[in-house]
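During the second half of the funding period, the structural biology subgroup turned its attention to how the target accommodates small molecules. The most pressing case was adenosine-5'-triphosphate, which had performed well in the primary screen but for which no bound structure existed. We therefore specified the complex as follows and requested a full 3D prediction, including the ligand pose.
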Amino acid sequence: MKLKRLELIGFKSFYDKTTFDFSEGISTIVGPNGCGKSNIVDAIRWVLGEHAPSYVRSKALEDVIFAGSDAAGPLGMAEVTLTFVNDDGNAPPGYESYVEISVTRRTYRDGESEFLINRMPCRLKDIAEPFLDMGAGARGYAIVQQGKVGEFAKAKPDENRLIIEEAAGGTLF
Ligand code: ATP
């Protein structure tokens, strides 16, 4: 499975609907400090089920909703959709026959969250478990945030254990 597209609306600094298409090979996002590059990584973690605000650099989960700017007032909902292309038959169980698999998370100011796979409502568990198994879970080794490479390199062996266990698929047990 490969990342194909990320769509954001009302998530952090993304007031307008914004789509990132990831083509073959490596995609790079460049921009000045504070323009929202790390918000994109936060969106990927969040849509894959992250439930701890600190892991998406927020104080409370509703802080991921666009809070307003000079140009626009606050929004009441944030929505992120991540689309994978199933090009290697490695899709989560039950989705092997789909060419594309999209995962959506929506949240409102009252704290309510909705999860969808291919636009059909599902449970957080239905997203978190299969994608964790693929190494793409919200805290998976496959998403390496700014500054984390240095942290891994400096970590003590027992601190690196979690990363190794996740790569080996051991974190599900
Ligand atoms: P750096 O290069 O410094 O790491 P960056 O490009 O990664 O920065 P981010 O940290 O992703 O930038 O984005 C920070 C911006 O997102 C700030 O301008 C902040 O005000 C804005 N932001 C974060 N949360 C919200 C929110 N809920 N509503 C509106 N804007 C937000």
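Two results from this model are relevant to the next phase. The first strand starts at residue 2 and ends at 9. The chain is about 20% helix and 20% strand.
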